[in-house]
From TrEMBL, chain B:
Record's GO cellular component terms: RNA polymerase I complex
Organism: Capsella rubella
Functional note: DNA-dependent RNA polymerase which catalyzes the transcription of DNA into RNA using the four ribonucleoside triphosphates as substrates.
Taxonomic classification: Eukaryota, Viridiplantae, Streptophyta, Embryophyta, Tracheophyta
Signal peptide region: 1-17
Protein name, UniProt field: DNA-directed RNA polymerase subunit
C-alpha cells in the first residue's frame, strides 16, 4: 500500500517538475509528456499511462501555465472522448472539470471541448453512444454546479456548434439527430432554465431550413381538386365531393437529388421533437415550453413562405394539451390577426394558420371553434360596416383572408355548428358580410367557396344565387389578386402531413 | 437586513441565471433607505438596438459592517451606489418606457460594468421626469433620465468574501460566492494550519491547532480575495490570513476571545 502511494507522489512530482521546467527552457520532459497523449487504442499499458497522466494533471492545474504549456493545453482540448476507453474518458472529464473550475480563462475552451463531443464520428456503436454522451452531460452539470454562470456561456457555443445543414450523405442524418437529441436532453435538465429557450429556437430554425430545402412546386402539380377537404390521407371525410382519392405520397421523396435524405432527416427530427414534447407534458413542463415554442414559431415559421411541415410541431404540442395549449395557440393567432400593428402579411398568414388549425384540430371542442369563428365574423362584419368600397382584392387583402378563413372553417364544421342552435345565431352577421359590396364570395378561392355553398345549401344555412357556381375552378384571377405574391389564398398549412413517420404520431 | 435577504435569495438557487422571475424583496427596517429592491432579469432579447448608458455617479455609500451574527456580516465586496443614468430607448418601445428601462438594466445583471465599477446584482430605478430628449439621426432614440440605486459586487484584492464550499480536493477548495461567483483557493494559498483529511469518505480540511475548526462540503467559508476575473466573475482566493476559515467557528471563537479582551482593557485602565 505504501509503495503505490509513494510511487504516486513520485509521479506527481515528476510531472509537476516537467511542467515547471518549461519556464526555464528545458522542454525534454515536457515533450515526453505530450508524446504520452497519443497511445494506440489496443496498447493497454500506454492507455493506463495516459490515464495516470490525466489524473495527475487534474491535481496539478495550478501548475499549468496558459502561455508556456500551450501545446499541452491544445492537445487536451482537441482530445475527443469518442476515441478512448471509459477509464481514460473519466480521467479526461475530471481534468476538464478541474480546468474549468480553477481558472476562468479555460472555461470557454472546456465547454467547447465538451460540446464538440455531441457530434459523433462516423460509424459509432450504440454502446459507445451510451459511454460518451452521459459523461458529457454529467460533466456539464458538474461544471454548472461549480460555476453557476457557466450555462449562460454555453448558449452561444451550442448555437455555433450546430452541424451545418449541407453535410452530404447519410452522415448528416446521424450527426444532426444526435446533436439535436442531446440539445433536447439539455433543455429538459436543470441547465435548461438558461439554455432552453435558445435550444428550442435553434431546433425550430433548423426544421424550417430543412423544410425550405424541400420543393413545394412538384407536389402542387400532382394536386388537383382531390384531397383538399379530406381529413386524413387515407380516409374520406363526411360530406366532401371527392372521396377516397389516394394522395401521391411516393412523389414526395423523388424531386431533388438528395431530397430523400433531407425529408428523412426532417421526418426524424420531428419525431424526436414530438418525443421531447411528450416527455415535457409528462413532467408538467409543457406550458412553459409552449410559450417559447410559440415565440420561435412566430419568429421563424409564421412568416416563412409556405412552410410545409415545421408547423406540425405546434400542432402536436396543442394536441397533447388541448384545453390549455390548444386554446392558447388559436387565441394567439387570432390576436395577431386582430392587431392592426402587425404587418399585413403576418396577419394574413396568421389567419390562414388559424383557419387550417381550427379545421384540422379534431381535439378542439366545437364550442371553442364556434367562439373563435364568432370573433372572426364580428371583426369582418365591423370591417364591412365601416367600408364603403367595391370589390377590390388588392386593397382589402386582410379582410378577404379573414373571410376565406371563416368559409374554410365552416366547410369542416358546418354540421357541428348547425347542430347547436346557439351557435347558429352567432353567425347571423355572416350573411351581412357575404352580401356586402366587397363581395367576398367572388374573391375567395373558388374551391373553398363552392364547397362552402354546397354545404350551406345542404345544411339550410342560406340559399345563394346561381352566380356562385365555379365549375371546379382551383383558383381565379380574383383570388390570386388577394392572395398576393405569396399566394396566401391557397395556403392551408395543417393539411395532412406528408412525412411518413411524423404523420403516424 | 436586506443585504442578507438578497444574499440569502441568491444562495437559494445555485444555478442562478438571468432567467429567474422577477422578485421583489422589501425591507421594513426604518434604518434602511430603500424599501424595495427589484431583482428582475428579463434579458433584453427583443430590444435589438444597443442602448447607451452614461453613468454620472453622484454618491457612493459603502455598507457598514453590521453587528449581526448573520451571514453577510463580513461581506466586504458589496456596495450600494446611487447613479443618475441616461437610458436611450428605441422608439418602438415608447408604449411602455419603464419596462424598456428595466429590460436594459436587466441585461446588465451579473455582468461586470466598468461604468458602475462592479457587477450589478440588483437595481431600483425611478424615472424622475417624463421629458426625454430625442436624438437626431437615423433612428430617433430618446434618452430618459433615470435615478437608480444599484447593488454592486466589487471584491477588491485583500477584501473578505464568504461563500459555500461546493468541492474539496487535496489541491483546492471550490466555493460559490453569492450564488453566482465561483471562487477557488488552491493548496498553495491554504495556510499550514489546515491539513487535508478524509472523513466518512469525504475530503475535508481540519485545523491542526483547533480540532473543531473543519472545512467540509457545505461549510460557509470566509476567504480573502487575491484577484477577481471580471470577464467570468471568478475569484481567486486565499486562506492564508488568520481571520479566514469557517465562518461559524470564527465567530464563535471571536466571541470567546472578546470577554478576555475587555478584562485586559479594564486591567490596563485601572
Amino acid at each position: 500500500m505504501d509503495n503505490t502511494e509513494d510511487s504516486d507522489t513520485e509521479s506527481v512530482y515528476v510531472v509537476r517538475k516537467a511542467l515547471a521546467s518549461v519556464q526555464n527552457g528545458d522542454t525534454d520532459h515536457y515533450t515526453q509528456l505530450i508524446g504520452m497523449m497519443y497511445p494506440k487504442y489496443s496498447d493497454i499499458d500506454a492507455v493506463a499511462q495516459l490515464e495516470t497522466l490525466l489524473k495527475i494533471l487534474s491535481c496539478s492545474v495550478a501548475f499549468i501555465d496558459v502561455v508556456h504549456h500551450r501545446d499541452l493545453l491544445s492537445n487536451i482540448f482537441t482530445m475527443s472522448l469518442w476515441n478512448h476507453r471509459p477509464n481514460v474518458m473519466d480521467a479526461l472529464v475530471d481534468l476538464i472539470i478541474s480546468l474549468a473550475a480553477t481558472s476562468g480563462k479555460y472555461l470557454d475552451l472546456c465547454l467547447n471541448m465538451l460540446i464538440s463531443n455531441f457530434i459523433p464520428p462516423p460509424s459509432v456503436t450504440p454502446r459507445k453512444n451510451q459511454e460518451v454522451l452521459p459523461r458529457v452531460h454529467a460533466a456539464l452539470h458538474k461544471i454548472s454546479y461549480l460555476i453557476p454562470l457557466a450555462p449562460s456561456k454555453l448558449v452561444p457555443i451550442l448555437a455555433q456548434r450546430m452541424p451545418k445543414i449541407h453535410i452530404k450523405g447519410q452522415d448528416s442524418l446521424i450527426v444532426t439527430l444526435t446533436y439535436v437529441d442531446n440539445l433536447l436532453k439539455l433543455e429538459n435538465s436543470p441547465i435548461g432554465k438558461v439554455v432552453g429557450s435558445m435550444i428550442l429556437m435553434v431546433v425550430m430554425e433548423r426544421m424550417r431550413d430543412l423544410d425550405l430545402e424541400i420543393e413545394w412546386d412538384d407536389i402542387l402539380q400532382e394536386d388537383s381538386n382531390r384531397g383538399m377537404f379530406d381529413m386524413e390521407l387515407e380516409d374520406a371525410v363526411e360530406s366532401t365531393m371527392n372521396e377516397g382519392d389516394e394522395f401521391p405520397v411516393g412523389a414526395l421523396y423523388q424531386y431533388t437529388s438528395d431530397g430523400n435524405v433531407v425529408s428523412e432527416l426532417l421526418d426524424r427530427l420531428m419525431v424526436l421533437s414530438f418525443k421531447h414534447l411528450k416527455s415535457c407534458k409528462n413532467s408538467g413542463r409543457l406550458d412553459e415550453v409552449f410559450e417559447i415554442l410559440f415565440e420561435s414559431f412566430e419568429n421563424y415559421v409564421l412568416n416563412t413562405y409556405k412552410s410545409k411541415f415545421s408547423q406540425f410541431l405546434m400542432f402536436y404540442a396543442c394536441s397533447l394539451d388541448p384545453e390549455n395549449c390548444g386554446v392558447k395557440f388559436a387565441s394567439k393567432l387570432l390576436e395577431i390577426y386582430l392587431s392592426s400593428n402587425k404587418p399585413r402579411l403576418t396577419r394574413m398568414s396568421a389567419v390562414a394558420y388559424l383557419a387550417s388549425y381550427l379545421s384540422r384540430g379534431k381535439f378542439l371542442p366545437p364550442s371553442f371553434v364556434a367562439s373563435m369563428l364568432k370573433r372572426l365574423v364580428d371583426e369582418c362584419a365591423e370591417y364591412c360596416r365601416t367600408c364603403n368600397d367595391d370589390m377590390k382584392p388588392k386593397a382589402h387583402q386582410v379582410f378577404y383572408s379573414g373571410c376565406q378563413a371563416i368559409l374554410y372553417v365552416l366547410c369542416f364544421h358546418m354540421r357541428s355548428i348547425l347542430d347547436i342552435p346557439r351557435f347558429q345565431s352567432q353567425l347571423t352577421s355572416l350573411e351581412s358580410i357575404l352580401s356586402h359590396k366587397l363581395n367576398p364570395l367572388m374573391v375567395c378561392l373558388p374551391s373553398v367557396v363552392s364547397e362552402f355553398l354546397k354545404q350551406s345549401k345542404a345544411g339550410g344555412l342560406f340559399v345563394v344565387s346561381e352566380a356562385f357556381i365555379f365549375d371546379d375552378l382551383q383558383e381565379s384571377e380574383l383570388s390570386r389578386a388577394f392572395g398576393g405574391f405569396e399566394r396566401l389564398d391557397t395556403f392551408f398549412p395543417f393539411d395532412p402531413c406528408l412525412l411518413k413517420m411524423s404523420n403516424r404520431e | 437586513n436586506w443585504v442578507w435577504l438578497v444574499y440569502w435569495v441568491l444562495n437559494l438557487n445555485p444555478l442562478l441565471s438571468r432567467e429567474t422571475k422577477t422578485l421583489v424583496v422589501s425591507s421594513r427596517r426604518r434604518r434602511h433607505l430603500f424599501q424595495f429592491i427589484v431583482l428582475s432579469s428579463a434579458p433584453a432579447q427583443n430590444c435589438k438596438s444597443p442602448v447607451l448608458l452614461r453613468c454620472t455617479a453622484s454618491s457612493l455609500s459603502e455598507l457598514k459592517k453590521t453587528k449581526s451574527r448573520g451571514i453577510g456580516s463580513s461581506m466586504e465586496g458589496l456596495k450600494l451606489s446611487e447613479a443618475e443614468l441616461m437610458v436611450y430607448i428605441h422608439p418602438s418601445k415608447s408604449r411602455n418606457v419603464f419596462q424598456a428601462i428595466c429590460r436594459e438594466l436587466s441585461s446588465l445583471l451579473f455582468q461586470y460594468t466598468e461604468t458602475f465599477d462592479g457587477v450589478l446584482l440588483a437595481y431600483d430605478a425611478t424615472v424622475k421626469s417624463k421629458q426625454a430628449k430625442i436624438l437626431s439621426g437615423l433612428h430617433p432614440y430618446f434618452g430618459v433620465r433615470v435615478n437608480t440605486r444599484l447593488l454592486l459586487f466589487d471584491p477588491k484584492p485583500k477584501s473578505l468574501v464568504e461563500g459555500e464550499i461546493v468541492k474539496i480536493s487535496p489541491e483546492s477548495i471550490h466555493v460559490v460566492v453569492l450564488g453566482f461567483s465561483a471562487a477557488v483557493v488552491t493548496d498553495l494559498d491554504i495556510r499550514e494550519e489546515f491539513k487535508f483529511r478524509v472523513k466518512d469518505g469525504e475530503g475535508c480540511f481540519v485545523s491542526r491547532s483547533h480540532k473543531r475548526h473543519a472545512l467540509k462540503l457545505g461549510t460557509i467559508l470566509r476567504l480573502q480575495v487575491q484577484s477577481f476575473d471580471e470577464e467570468v466573475l471568478h475569484i481567486a482566493g486565499s486562506l492564508l490570513p488568520e481571520n479566514t476559515g469557517c465562518v461559524k467557528w470564527l465567530e464563535k471563537h471571536s466571541e470567546e476571545v472578546l470577554p478576555t479582551d475587555r478584562d485586559r482593557k479594564r486591567r490596563k485602565l485601572s
